[in-house]
């Protein structure tokens, strides 16, 4: 399975609402570098990345468009 980063942030909490919405829609996703950003938040080079399976990108785009319109 190939993973794609759809959003990134220095703060994992910025990604959690979208992650929760995707999971509620049955889309498997995870936060890459989640723990690194928690421990090393003072270093700007580390970012958390919200990733989804490449196969789910069409549905993810629909959800993200819907969220942006709201």
UniProtKB/TrEMBL annotation:
<dbReference type="InterPro" id="IPR018551">
    <property type="entry name" value="DUF2007"/>
</dbReference>
<feature type="domain" description="DUF2007">
    <location>
        <begin position="5"/>
        <end position="68"/>
    </location>
</feature>
<dbReference type="Pfam" id="PF09413">
    <property type="entry name" value="DUF2007"/>
</dbReference>
<dbReference type="InterPro" id="IPR011322">
    <property type="entry name" value="N-reg_PII-like_a/b"/>
</dbReference>
<protein>
    <recommendedName>
        <fullName>DUF2007 domain-containing protein</fullName>
    </recommendedName>
</protein>
């Amino acid at each position: 399975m190939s993973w794609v980063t759809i959003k990134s942030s220095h703060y994992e909490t910025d990604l959690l609402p979208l992650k929760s919405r995707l999971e509620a829609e049955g889309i498997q996703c995870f936060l890459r570098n989640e723990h690194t950003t928690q421990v090393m938040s003072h270093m700007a080079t580390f970012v958390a990345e919200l990733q989804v399976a490449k196969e789910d990108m069409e549905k993810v785009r629909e959800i993200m468009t819907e969220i942006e319109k709201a």
